[in-house]
């Protein structure tokens, strides 16, 4: 009887084996540049964005590239991109490498476990719910820092990059860690963000500017913690989010050097993308006056009609200021800024040998350690999906309404997706919107580049953006602010 069962079981397996469609491993085309070995790296360095777009046009949505000695598969279609981002057997090892290189500690110091601990703390404290307590502190600081910066530069042209770095860095730092935070680290932070690739690949003959700036910031953080931290009460005047972060780090019982390296890397990570996107947000609004006026009128209407003319009242209820549907033009404009200036080109590494289905027809085999890339930017710029994709159309996203049967086109989120999705995205959106709302409500502003160029020309070199996903603003914009008078 047992033999009979075994035989029946084998027959069923055999039938299933032949009836189930075979996983089709198709031949992935190679998009390598003609010059062997270094050709592809040179192309990526010269103008990575154009190279990736042309590769898709020529070879279809999935192709391979040889980068150094690695064969890397690239997927550029919605299904493939989503599957890569969501697959649990693919790891995002770049984040840990970034943290170690930024913090200046040896490889292997920051483990996956420590990174997860930190990431969970960010998710807990910086999500929409977590920022309710942080919001009034942050918005008060933004108003204070904006007015003091503009008053201190009365009658002068103001650098957009300096203005955004100054206001956001100071406001976030005071809100998160209290008024005793060493704010004089702001210029060092700006320098580190500008020369950031040099911290990742230290080269002997380049100036050590960012390395020295990092040492100064870490030393200032060390003194700040020693003088102000209290395990029970946290930092005086700080939001729960900042205290939670340090408590989480302390619970890992790290050496003081590792703890400071992680805190430093976190602070850079907290600001590097947000500062760049905010600069693009201002630059694009300034260069599209129709957009600026429409967004400003919408902000005015909300404040005047629902908050009796009080900016503070709007900002103290974060769900109104930044919640969906309150400011549809502002939301759409921000979505458009993110679509244009963020490169969600996400790199993953196979943690074991795997067979990965990228869509119904295509699947690839990856050996342990092999890399695969989800190129969401090419998809976000696809002409068949977005009409006139290079243009900034501030109201592009207002016409879609999934509930009304007008679905949003397949946009790859600037914040990624799946297990490694950005844990600070709610806070990032909140931060950026508050600064823009404050400036639109309190000031009329115009801006120009020194060369008279129209922004954005958006032609980033891979080396200037990677491994952060936001394009550099190639030219600074110089602003002039004039106070607006509102009838009382
Ligand atoms: C506009 C600003 C920002 C952009 C465009 C951005 C974008 C991203 C992207 C693309 C990823 C990688 C997602 C992936 O690999 O699938 C990421 C990861 C992450 N981001 Fe952001 N980010 C921003 C701001 C922030 C802020 C303000 C914070 C902290 C409060 C933050 C914390 C994180 C963390 C902790 C991760 C790692 C998630 C993980 O692997 O568990 N981000 N971000």
UniProtKB/TrEMBL annotation:
Binding, heme: 422
Cofactors named for this entry: heme
Leader sequence segment: 1-27
Source organism superkingdom: Eukaryota
InterPro entries reported in the protein's UniProt record: CYP450_sterol_14alpha_dmase, Cyt_P450, Cyt_P450_E_grp-IV, Cyt_P450_sf
Keyword Hydrolase: no
Pfam families attached to this UniProt entry: p450
MF term (GO), any: iron ion binding
Metal-binding among keywords: yes
Keywords, alphabetical: Heme, Iron, Metal-binding, Signal
PANTHER family for this protein: 24-HYDROXYCHOLESTEROL 7-ALPHA-HYDROXYLASE, CYTOCHROME P450 FAMILY 7
Family note: Belongs to the cytochrome P450 family.
Name recorded for this polypeptide: Cytochrome P450
Organism from which the protein derives: Cerrena zonata
Taxonomic path: Eukaryota, Fungi, Dikarya, Basidiomycota, Agaricomycotina
